[in-house]
């Protein structure tokens, strides 16, 4: 079942431009290592925090990536921009438009 990964975090203002600039390389490396990654959206919340939304083909693939994401050098380097994390969670897509499959 398609799964959405939600990761809420904070980034110091001085690191925002670099974080955004390095995002495409990080996502490409993640997609190469984890082909179950279907889409990724970096969003900024009204309070200045960030929410990373990643669409996965399955919960198993999302959970495997979460366990081993630090083994991807570009991902580990990108995570250095995060000053505080509010955690990671996975939710299963029950209905969608358009259908992500």
From TrEMBL:
Keywords: Monooxygenase, Oxidoreductase. It holds the Pfam family ABM. InterPro entries: ABM_dom, Dimeric_a/b-barrel. Residues 5-68 form the ABM domain. One of its GO terms (molecular function) is monooxygenase activity. The keyword Oxidoreductase applies. SUPFAM superfamilies: Dimeric alpha+beta barrel. This is Antibiotic biosynthesis monooxygenase.
